[in-house]
Structure prediction request, 87 residues.
Amino acid sequence: MAALAWLLIPLFAVVGAAIWGSWASRNKTIGDVAELAGYARFRDAMERAHPTPSDSVRPEREDSARPEREPAAAATAATAVTSSSSG
Prediction:
């Protein structure tokens, strides 16, 4: 009877190996289809032309916290006028 018990150990190992082998070689392409479709959408999005920030038109608000900058030439002219009128 002890010899039969020792023969059952390799039998269980073979059955376990067969179950693991069938699980390891299962068809894994089901999840890949959705992943590949997502990658194709990502590639399409990257190939499309994206608008630059200067292309987009943003409405200007009157109560903006940050005032718009003047061009450099206008800023130096305004400085020259104020310095000549004070002296």
The mean pLDDT is 75. The CA atoms of residues 2 and 8 lie 10 Å apart. Helices lie at 2-24, 29-47, 72-86.
